[in-house]
Amino acid sequence: MTTADEILSDPDMLFAAAQADRANGDVLAAFDLVRRGKDLGTRSVALDYLLTRLMTELGDFEGALELYDALGLAEHGTVDSLSLKGRILKEQAFLCSGESRAQLLRQAADVYQSVYVLSQEHYPAINAASLMMMTGQIRAARVLAAKVRDAIQASGDRDYWTLASDTEARLLLGDEPAAECSAMQLGDIGNVPFADRASTIRQFRRLGDCPSINQPAIARLIEALRPPPVIAYCGHMFVEGCDAEAQLRERIDAALDEVGTSIAYGPLACGADILFAEAVLARGGELNIVLPFKEPDFIDQSVRCGGEGWVARFRACRNAANSVVLATESAFVGDDNQFAYGTRVMMGLAEIRARQLETEAVQLAVLDDNAGAANGGNIAGTRADVAFWEKLGRRSIVIAAGPVDRRLEFPRLDIDKDAPERGAYSILFADYKGFSKLGERELPHFAAKVMGTIGEVLDDFGREILFRNTWGDAVYVVIASPATAARVAIVLQERLATPPPELASQDTGSAMGMRIGVHHGPIYKGFDRVVKQPLWFGTEVTRTARIEPVTPTGAVYCTDAFAAMLAIDTAEAFTYHYVGRVELAKGYGQIGMYRLVRVKN
What is the rounded distance in angstroms from the CA atom of residue 565 to the CA atom of residue 351? Predict the structure, then answer.
């Protein structure tokens, strides 16, 4: 059996493994894999191209352009390597609007046009034609599209990408019946990676914004190619061996057949969760498990309570899963916020994956006959999960639980009844790189200009700022919601992007500026008996404090949990680019990290 080390050290095996992850829509896993190999010195032209393309697909366009030049991809002279710069510019354009977008689209069109002139291949030609259409060059776009259509007809090729180009060319030419005919053939091709379908859908969707393109035709094409939904599952726990289990399994199988899904996210409690997981694995699907806290505690609280037999089934599913994510690595402290938080992270990760695949995230929930009953104010549990998902406006499919035995035996938990209040909040830590090199004369300027600006920004957000503290150049803030935390972090970076004149001339040995880390998780709200003021503390606070030291100057890094929360929030003005699994400061382990940026206008 091939080991992970062997894969990471062999360029061909590494490329194949990363391509397999990408083909299944797991761009993050593919990126992590190739980057780890690169860090170990495993390089090839194909891996350099793939790493840059993956960075593009993850949305870090500035980083992709820098990497493209640093790796010298243009020097290889292949159609793929030359066209990649056009792809990066095109994707970057769609983070902008107005003239900024048009300018980038024209630059991308020029790149693709030059590659077409050199190669005479239809891939760069159809991209150049579509970009011309998007920038209002209708006649030029149709002239080039006709050349693509005629070349494909003459070649007789009918592979996926050739058919995709043919469909796109006929759309540009206004030949909707031929485009739909070509798209039907496109949809019938089997074993096409989800990521490739998503790329095609994204291109068609963008063409749909052009006034000269038939909107209903675009909608029909997208629907024909859309990958099946990503599911976020949940359901009641119940006792092992009950007679109703077999019938429930049949209903779960029927629901999965109806949705046609093969990618699932959810926890792994006894009962419905494990039935979902087993059903997904049985059909060769991809299972992604999200646990709310430490695994041994989860087994004690949510698996063994239904009988010891569930533990073995839990471990079998866990070992076969594509990924296992701990929403928090802390112990269970008897707080329902921990369960609710784990569910929100799971939902957000499912939503992120669905967006990558240009499909939707759908909830499958096993509920008893009182599914419509009020939740009674509980923040955790299946009813709470369904209510939260539906409040987001997402589609939920309810599966009747039937007469399963829900007489669970929970372990005794010694909980401190006097423990402080807990809740899930956003946490921000920041510092100012170069502060320690400032001299005595500069410190008053720093206090007035830098820390004063930070105070002004926090004041602007009013009651959304629940707590703030500072020492030296360090800033610690607790914020009510992830969307607000994203705005606070970005505004802080924008306001302090340029060092004050009084500090800019100082020789600090490195670039000066803010480093900001943000996270979201369950923490305590207590009282500091020393300074006599409120105190917000917990493991997730400590985790956040370990982020900003590894954040580049001028950047905002956020955790995968924070990104998941934004995915189910309403932070349309922001996006996040995956940077990989980052080693936190002070040996605090690795965590999936994103760079948070504002969508430019």
Answer: 10
Tens of pLDDT, residue by residue over 207-257, are 888 888 888 888 888 888 888 999 999 999 999 988 899 999 999 999 999
Strands (E) across 352-455 are located at: 361-367, 396-400, 421-433
Q: Percent of the chain beyond pLDDT 90?
A: 51
Of the candidates 46, 47, 39, 49, the residue with the CA atom closest to the CA atom of residue 582: 39
**Nearest-10 Cα torsion for 493, 51, 223, 127:** 90
Give the pair of three-digit tokens for residue 386.
């369904």
Q: In a 3-state reduction of DSSP, which class is residue 193?
A: coil
Amino acid at site 546: R
DSSP class of 405: -
The β-bridge relationship of strands 556-559 and 513-528 is parallel
Beta bridge partners of 266: 289
DSSP conformational letter for 299:
I
Query: What are the angstrom distances between the C-alpha of 171 and each of 134, 199, 458?
Result: 13, 16, 50
Do β-strands 556-559 and 533-537 pair in parallel, antiparallel, or remain unpaired? Answer: unpaired
Give the C-alpha distances (Å, rounded to integers) separating 410 from 225, 270, 297, 565: 46, 12, 12, 30
* 53: its two tokens: 């393309």
Exposed e or buried b per residue across 94-119, where buried means at least 16 C-beta atoms within 10 angstroms of its C-beta: bbbeeeebeebbbbbbebbbebbeeb
Please report where in the chains the tokens 């020097």 appear, as a residue.
75
Residues 6+ apart with CB under 8 A from 137: 109
CA separation, residue 365 to residues 232, 244, 259, 464 (Å) = 8, 16, 13, 33
**Residues 226, 260: contact at Cβ < 8 Å?**
no
**Rounded Cα gap, residues 65 and 68, in angstroms:** 5
The pLDDT value given to residue 412? 79
- CB count in 10 Å sphere of residue 581: 17
Helix (H, G, I), strand (E, B) or coil at 26: coil
Alpha helices in 309-363 (DSSP H): 309-320, 336-356
Question: Which residue reads 């370990």 in tokens?
Answer: 546
Distance, in Å, from the CA atom of 177 to the CA atom of 174, rounded to the nearest integer, reads 9
Q: 3-state secondary structure string, 285-301?
A: CEEEEEECCCHHHHHHH
> What is the pLDDT confidence band of residue 510, given thresholds at 50, 70 and 90?
low
Confidence class for position 601, pLDDT limits 50, 70, 90: low
The tokens 């803010």 sit on which residue?
514
